[in-house]
Amino acid sequence: MIESTYTYVMTLSGPSTNITDSFTGSSYSFDGLGAGTYSMYVTIEGVSANEFERFFEVTVREPDPLTIYSGLTNKSNNLTLTMKGGQVYNVTHNGKTTQTSASEITIALDNGNNAIRVDTGLECQGVYQETFFNSSEVQIAPNPFNDAMNLFIGGTDRDLKIDIFTPGGSLIHTEQCRLDSNTRMITIPTSNYPQGSYTVNIQGETTQQSIQVVKE
Asked: How far apart are CA 40 and CA 54, in angstroms?
């Protein structure tokens, strides 16, 4: 039993460690120890070691590594992270950090790039980092089409690049489009297209879509 009025002298030795310190009270902690086996001696200041000395051998183990499982839901608008290895997790999304002790968290993704970082505050457990691109929605109608196809662009991108490819991968149409504030629709004439299937690629700052269409 520890007598809180005594001054105890603690000596700890182990991997790259040789610490001697004293304290008065009922508890003491050594922080920042690496994994390994340590020897700890406890004496009382002013008291002979023949009267009071305690020896302990302590093993410090590495914590489990940080493990993250990620999954996209709801048409990629939400990201679910399942986290293992820590007691508290620091989750950073596009520079904004939240802290949670839950083993699962769902993040509502922004349009465009989403930089995700997770750590536990312990460097030895590792860091999870990944970037997810959440595209604005694009719809094409009619599909199948005849003389024209209409592209309805979601989100807020003003500048877009549109490429149309044949099934063999040949580029048959490319254009740079700038949407005004009154409409989010782009019409492409297609009367000269042969019957068959095509791939329409739409790219913008927050838009990356590849859509299969058919000419009747």
From this structure: 8
Taking only the tens place, the pLDDT of each residue in 121-131 is 988 899 999 99
Task: Output the six-digit token pair for 7.
Answer: 């001054």
138 touches 208 (CB < 8 A): no
Single out the residue of 90, 208, 105, 118 nearest to residue 154, CA to CA.
208
Which sign, positive or negative, has the C-alpha torsion 211, 199, 111, 133?
A: positive
Q: Cα separation of 177 and 186, whole Å?
A: 8
Q: Please tell me the distance from the alpha carbon of residue 140 to that of residue 200, in angstroms, as a whole number.
A: 9
Q: Give strand pairing partners of 177.
A: 160
Strand segments, DSSP code E, in 45-111 are 53-60, 67-73, 78-84, 89-93, 96-100, 104-108
Q: Considering the entire predicted model, what is its pTM?
A: 0.68
What domains are defined for the chain?
7-60 (no CATH), 67-134 (2.60.40), 138-215 (2.60.40.3080)
